[in-house]
Structures are given as C-alpha cells and as structure tokens.
C-alpha cells in the first residue's frame, strides 16, 4: 500500500516558469515532510522540509505548501532554471525516535531553456 | 566535510557471485540505512541499523544481508546476486534521539551490474 502519492510523474516547464509537484498522504501519524532532489547518477539530497505546524515554508526559489486537513503538500519552484532539471521525491516520516521515510514515486522535472 | 561515502561507485559482478558494498560516514550518526533504487523508481528501504540494532524490512529478500562493525561503517552483502538485483544501492544516515526529527543524508550510491 503506497502511503504517499505523488503527481505528476513527469513535468516539463519553460525556463522562468513555476514548477508544481503535489503529494498526498494517508497516514495521519506522519509529522515530517521532506522533499529530496536527485540528479542522474547521484544520491538524493534534501531540498526543503516542513512540519505540520506551519502551512508554508520558503527557501529561496523553493516553497512547500502544506494542507493538513486535506493531507496534501506541494513543492513550488519559482523561476525554474535548467539546472533544476532532476527527479524530485516527496517523503513523509512519523516520529518514531528517528527518521523512517516513506517516499513518493518521484517526479522527473525537465526545465527547457 | 562531513559526508556519507560509498565504495565502489560502480560494481560489476557475475550472476551468483557474492558481492559486498560498503558505506562509511563522518557524520557520527547513529542510524544507517540501505536502500535499493531501480531506474525511475523511488528508493526502497532494505534495512537499517539503530546503533547496533538491526531492523530488516519485511519484504527484503534473504539474499541481502548487512553488517555494521562500528558507528562509521556499514556493509551490504548480496550472497547470490541475480539479474533482478542490478540497481543503485544507496546508503543513508540519520540521527535518533528524543523528539528531534532529523532527516536522512544520502551517499552517492553504488551502481551494481549483474552479468
């Protein structure tokens, strides 16, 4: 049973546009929601993360929006650049003393020049 | 710089020939994870260590074993690799303790090819 559903599977955005990736979760025990960025041949790297006590978190061009009642969260990449082309994974974790991530299936983002 | 290191970066083995992948960390994290990632898929957790306590995922094949001789090192042993085990293997680390939620820090991965 997939506990974190991610969409879309792939996304093409023009340079300067806004990239939006959505995730939905089922388990209300999740209380930590990170986004990972992965370039081909590399390991995933933490991009930005949010806890459910806030509805939005912004770091540079990257923003997480969180809707606790809808059990949804999304990643917005403003002014998308070709260097942002990568696979993005949302994840969720519950407080069990240490991190136990449940990943979404990933979104392959291509930013065209 | 503190980091997660995986060796080798690429490993070629023959069908059925045991192989060992290694991971080391300078972060002094007490939790270490091994993931398998196939092309265009999310990382799949195989097992993890909380200090010396080993935690195996229910669907991890018996063909996969792990060792953690000390805090810094963790090994993934594949006893009899099959063609379906060709994948990227990712090591990650994290911190446990109290109510502080820490994320996982991934190494660059080892790409395994089975001939």
Question: How many alpha or pi helices of chain B?
Answer: 0
Per DSSP E runs of 2 or more residues, the count of β-strands of chain A stands at 11
Q: Based on Cα principal axes, name the global outline of chain A.
A: globular
Mean pLDDT of chain A: 92
Which oligomeric form is depicted?
heterodimer
Order of helices and strands of chain B: EEEEEEEEEEE
Low-confidence residue ranges of chain A: none
Give the amount of beta strand of chain B, in percent: over 45%
Q: How can the largest sheet of chain A be summarized? A: 6 strands, mixed
Classification by helices and strands of chain B: mainly beta
Structural features, described:
- The complex is a heterodimer of chains A (113) and B (115).
- Chain A is mainly β.
- Chain A is built from no helices and 11 strands.
- In chain A, strands 2, 4, 5, 9, 10 and 11 form a 6-stranded mixed beta sheet that branches. In chain A, strands 1-3-8-7-6 form a 5-stranded antiparallel beta sheet, with no helix packed on it.
- The model of chain A has no long low-confidence stretch (mean pLDDT 92).
- By secondary structure, chain B is an all-beta fold.
- Chain B contains no helices and 11 strands.
- In chain B, the strands form 2 sheets. In chain B, strands 2, 4, 5, 6, 9, 10 and 11 form a 7-stranded mixed beta sheet that branches. A 4-stranded antiparallel beta sheet of chain B has the order 1-3-8-7, with no helix packed on it.
- The mean pLDDT of chain B is 91.
Describe how the helices and strands are arranged.
The complex is a heterodimer of chains A (113) and B (115).
Chain A (H helix, E strand, L loop, with lengths): L3 E4 L2 E5 L4 E7 L4 E9 L6 E6 L5 E4 L2 E6 L4 E6 L8 E9 L7 E2 L3 E6 L1
Chain B lengths: L3 E4 L2 E4 L5 E7 L5 E7 L6 E7 L2 E4 L7 E4 L5 E6 L8 E8 L10 E2 L3 E5 L1
Parallel strand pairs in B: 2-11
Antiparallel strand pairs in B: 1-3, 3-8, 4-5, 4-9, 5-6, 7-8, 9-10, 9-11
């Amino acid at each position: 049973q997939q506990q974190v559903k991610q969409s879309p599977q792939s996304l093409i955005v023009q340079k300067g546009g806004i990239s939006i990736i959505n995730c939905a979760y089922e388990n209300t025990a999740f209380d930590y929601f990170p986004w990972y960025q992965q370039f081909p041949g590399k390991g995933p790297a933490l991009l930005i993360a949010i806890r459910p006590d806030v509805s939005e978190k912004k770091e540079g061009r990257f923003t997480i929006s969180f809707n606790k009642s809808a059990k949804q969260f999304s990643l917005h990449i403003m002014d998308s650049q070709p260097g942002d082309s990568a696979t993005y994974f949302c994840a969720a974790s519950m407080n069990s003393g240490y991190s136990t991530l449940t990943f979404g299936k990933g979104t392959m983002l291509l930013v065209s020049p | 710089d503190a980091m997660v290191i995986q060796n080798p970066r690429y490993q070629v083995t023959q069908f059925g020939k045991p192989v060992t992948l290694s991971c080391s960390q300078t972060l002094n994290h007490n939790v270490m994870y091994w993931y398998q990632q196939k092309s265009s898929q999310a990382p799949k957790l195989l097992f993890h260590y909380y200090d010396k306590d080993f935690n195996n995922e229910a669907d991890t094949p018996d063909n996969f074993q792990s060792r953690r001789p000390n805090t810094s090192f963790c090994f993934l042993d594949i006893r009899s690799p099959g063609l379906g085990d060709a994948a990227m293997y990712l090591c990650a680390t994290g911190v446990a303790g109290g109510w502080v939620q820490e994320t996982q820090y991934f190494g660059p991965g080892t790409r395994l090819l089975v001939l």
